[in-house]
């Protein structure tokens, strides 16, 4: 019997590493594996991870998939990578980590964002890079590291992101892709190249960041050492890959204008393809994983993270996330309108505000922990809907929302998003969108099972029927959205930017 052609997709997320083995012809996931990751929060607004934990989890997932491939008589043809963007990992000249990675959701580099805007200008920075400076981006975190740990900065020969560290371990090749480069504040998204003048403005050597490849181009091949650790074939092609947002959009088939991906993971990310760059409108612009066009992105920083917070804060320790969602759905909204502003670590979307904080507004004696959980889900849904409206204001077409990643499992959460946005929602799988999108990039790299990412996505992503919003819920969520906007505005009047920390990343 002939071996079954397959592609691998690996997703290095914030809470876990997920991997899939996908049949080349129809995109069916024939094997999957997952390993959890620990998020270190050593002080307020901090978010760090050990890169060695990243590698151990990724190697274990790939080994599981290699074993599954052999048992299924499957032949892996290429490996696609995706993962959390914005991570700052300093490496020495030998490629060894010098400190823990500082993540996308770390909010401590607010003073450095002020410095960047003062030096470059907000408008000029936005025109060149597609974004303003946010604390979780690479450049402000590097400036913070250089200020707090000059000895580490002096020994740093290379800065890499999460998936790019894994590629380096797999292939020995330092590289990044356009979607990741777009999120550094050092990449000119119009010219599709690093911006030497921005490096010079912050006294950075351009060699600190790796060469940029296209997402579906082969960036390297598996070394003998990596083949031993993962069980995969020596010389297996490894592609440039893409950030988890862009890969998630690919994985759920949101690759044409009008179809917009909502990735409900640790954050709640809205991603849309647009052939040309639109107006700012509160939207971050970057290069797309497709070879042409742009990705418009908005990020609600605390989505699954907010749900996990309310689980820890208000429920017994043995309650699962599913049980918290059940309690939320069972709570009676007639007890009184209750809204939650989900800005636990500042906010990027719908209103950029690094100093924003979260809050409940409207608490009454009849509210219980189920109401708190409902408010968290609805507050995140309203913030996502506001982000969708900001995209429309920037010229992006939106006709349906394709929801993927962990939060997509919940019918209650999907219905909340549909009602808040007054748009049909399509459930595109519970957690595999980004890893399947990475496998699509691997498929494009060989050309033997499709030479066009859009056609591969159309063939592999088979959406179920759309779930229409319930009119009564659209009206109720509209009332909550008014309260939510007022609460967010009032909190800005009492909030303050996060204080600068004197603690450097742990080594």
Question: N- to C-terminal separation?
Answer: 51 Å
Provide the domain count: 2
Poorly predicted sequence stretches spanning 5 or more consecutive residues: none
What class would the helix/strand composition place it in? alpha/beta
Give the CATH H-level superfamily of the largest domain. Answer: ATPase, nucleotide binding domain
What's the tally of helices? 17
Mean pLDDT: 92
The CATH architecture of the largest domain would be: 2-Layer Sandwich
Quaternary form: single chain
* Structural shape: globular
Radius of gyration: 22 Å
State the total count of DSSP E strands.
23
CATH topology of the largest domain: Nucleotidyltransferase, domain 5
> What is the highest CATH level, the class of the largest domain?
Alpha Beta
Helix content: 25-40%
- Sheet with most strands: strand arrangement: 18-19-17-16-22-23
| Percent of residues in beta strands | 15-25%
Main beta sheet strand tally, sense and closure: 6 strands, mixed
């Amino acid at each position: 019997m002939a071996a079954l052609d397959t592609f691998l997709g690996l997703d290095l997320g914030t809470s876990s590493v997920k991997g899939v083995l996908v049949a080349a012809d129809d995109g069916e996931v024939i094997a999957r594996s997952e390993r959890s990751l620990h998020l270190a929060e050593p002080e307020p607004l901090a978010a760090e991870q050990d890169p060695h934990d990243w590698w151990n989890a990724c190697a274990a997932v790939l080994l599981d998939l290699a074993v599954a491939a052999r048992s299924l008589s499957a032949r892996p043809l290429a490996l696609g990578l995706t993962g959390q963007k914005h991570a700052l990992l300093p490496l020495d000249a030998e490629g060894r980590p010098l400190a823990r990675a500082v993540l996308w959701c770390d909010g401590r580099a607010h003073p450095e964002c002020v410095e960047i805007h003062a030096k470059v200008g907000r408008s000029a920075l936005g025109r060149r890079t597609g974004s303003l400076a946010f604390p979780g981006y690479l450049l402000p975190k590097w400036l913070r590291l250089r200020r707090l740990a000059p000895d580490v900065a002096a020994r740093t020969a290379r800065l890499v992101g999460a998936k790019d560290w894994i590629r380096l371990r797999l292939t020995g090749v330092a590289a990044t892709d356009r979607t990741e480069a777009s999120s550094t504040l050092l990449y000119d998204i119009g010219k599709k190249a690093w911006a030497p003048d921005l490096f010079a403005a912050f006294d950075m050597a351009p060699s600190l960041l790796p060469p940029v490849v296209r997402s579906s181009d082969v960036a390297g091949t598996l070394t003998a050492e990596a083949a031993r650790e993962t069980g995969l074939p020596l010389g297996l092609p490894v592609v440039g890959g893409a950030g988890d947002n862009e890969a998630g959009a690919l994985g759920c088939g949101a690759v044409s204008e009008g179809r917009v991906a909502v990735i409900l993971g640790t954050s709640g990310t809205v991603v849309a393809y647009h052939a040309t760059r639109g107006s700012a409108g509160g939207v971050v612009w970057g290069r797309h994983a497709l070879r042409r066009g742009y990705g418009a992105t908005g990020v609600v920083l605390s989505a699954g993270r907010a749900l996990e917070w309310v689980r820890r804060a208000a429920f017994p320790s043995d309650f699962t996330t599913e049980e918290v969602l059940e309690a939320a759905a069972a709570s009676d909204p007639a007890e009184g309108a209750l809204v939650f502003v989900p800005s636990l670590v500042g906010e990027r979307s719908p209103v950029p505000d690094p100093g924003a904080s979260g809050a409940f507004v409207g608490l009454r004696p009849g509210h219980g922990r189920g109401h708190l959980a409902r408010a968290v889900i609805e507050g995140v849904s309203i913030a996502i809907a506001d982000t969708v409206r900001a995209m429309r204001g920037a010229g992006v077409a939106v006709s349906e929302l394709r929801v993927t990643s962990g939060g997509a499992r919940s019918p209650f959460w999907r219905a909340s998003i549909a009602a808040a946005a007054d748009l049909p929602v399509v459930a595109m799988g519970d957690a595999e969108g980004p890893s399947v999108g990475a496998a699509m990039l691997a498929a494009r790299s060989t050309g033997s099972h499709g030479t066009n990412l859009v056609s591969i996505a159309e063939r592999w992503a088979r959406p179920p029927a759309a779930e229409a919003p319930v009119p009564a819920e659209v009206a109720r969520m509209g009332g909550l959205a008014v309260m939510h906007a007022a609460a967010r505005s009032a909190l800005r009047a009492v909030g303050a930017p996060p204080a600068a920390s004197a603690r450097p990343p742990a080594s």
